[in-house]
Write a sequence for this structure.
């Protein structure tokens, strides 16, 4: 039996236990409750008026952030394929894959309904981008099951923070409430994966530590393939919704501390080397974040003066 498959098999009781925990704390919610349907009106095909830029109540940053968040959520079919392939659809793993997919499906439904009903963004452009992004799909490459566990532990937390901060920056109480609800889902998903990765560290410390190092160093959000993603990411970072400082302080470091990465004494030579490389990488991220903070402060001072 492949070592990674053996770890998945050994983790099965932990998966079952965490499914029970998840279901005991997850709260049922309905996308339609979070959409201000009274603001809606017909588009031209049904005798109304098509979208105009002045229709949107959102500022440019909120438009960008909400569009990126929605299009990222739209690729759920690809994400389902990725985790079903790595974790299988059998036993407790299969139960979780189904539960996770069903819960994640609410996010794009609610976000799109909100944006279309409120005319927050051009629905034609939005649909064309959805088609482009979903046709392209998401492919994680040859990630091992442990690498996927490490990645989603970081990614679910990053997504939670991005949604939550987007809601706060939207200037709309309804959007803020909706994105807070979605962020709560993402947080529970992060806890599930984080717990599984913690158990994997106890089962095979070196293999798990290697996966964690690789995924932390090579981390990229699943929406990276979107048109204009780099430009939009800069806009989002400058607005303080999600930047390098947040990634370091609020995503990487808290998860690594939960796993006790910095103080574990059960690594062999391979795991120890991976930890050292990860610590070095964190120092570089912190240094780069500081550079951008100082640059932002200088720019702000120049504008004030």
């Amino acid at each position: 039996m492949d070592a990674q498959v053996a770890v998945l098999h050994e983790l099965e009781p932990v998966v079952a236990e965490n499914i029970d925990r998840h279901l005991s704390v997850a709260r049922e919610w309905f996308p339609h409750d979070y959409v201000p349907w009274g603001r809606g009106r017909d588009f031209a095909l049904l005798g109304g008026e098509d979208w105009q830029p002045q229709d949107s109540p959102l500022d440019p940053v909120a438009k960008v952030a909400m569009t990126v968040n929605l299009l990222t959520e739209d690729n759920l079919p690809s994400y389902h394929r990725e985790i079903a392939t790595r974790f299988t659809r059998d036993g407790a793993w299969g139960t979780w894959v189904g539960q996770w997919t069903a819960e994640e499906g609410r996010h794009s439904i609610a976000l799109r309904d909100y944006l279309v009903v409120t005319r927050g963004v051009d629905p034609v452009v939005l649909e064309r981008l959805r088609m482009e992004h979903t046709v392209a799909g998401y492919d994680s490459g040859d990630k091992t099951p442990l690498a996927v566990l490490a990645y989603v532990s970081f990614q679910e937390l990053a997504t939670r923070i991005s949604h939550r901060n987007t809601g706060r920056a939207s200037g709309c109480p309804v959007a803020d409430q909706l994105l807070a609800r979605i962020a709560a889902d993402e947080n529970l998903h992060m806890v599930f994966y984080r717990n599984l990765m913690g158990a994997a560290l106890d089962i095979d410390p070196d293999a798990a530590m290697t996966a964690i190092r690789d995924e932390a160093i090579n981390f990229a959000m699943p929406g990276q393939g979107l048109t204009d993603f780099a430009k939009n990411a800069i806009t989002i970072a400058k607005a303080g919704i999600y930047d390098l400082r947040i990634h370091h302080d609020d995503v990487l470091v808290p998860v690594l501390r939960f796993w006790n990465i910095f103080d574990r004494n059960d690594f062999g030579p391979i795991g120890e080397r991976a930890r050292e490389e990860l610590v070095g990488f964190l120092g570089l991220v912190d240094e780069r974040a500081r550079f951008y903070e100082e640059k932002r402060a200088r720019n702000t001072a120049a504008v004030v003066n």
The CA atoms of residues 209 and 275 lie 7 Å apart. DSSP finds eleven helices and no strands in the chain. The chain has a mean pLDDT of 94. The domain at 3-304 is CATH 1.10.620.20 (Ribonucleotide Reductase, subunit A).
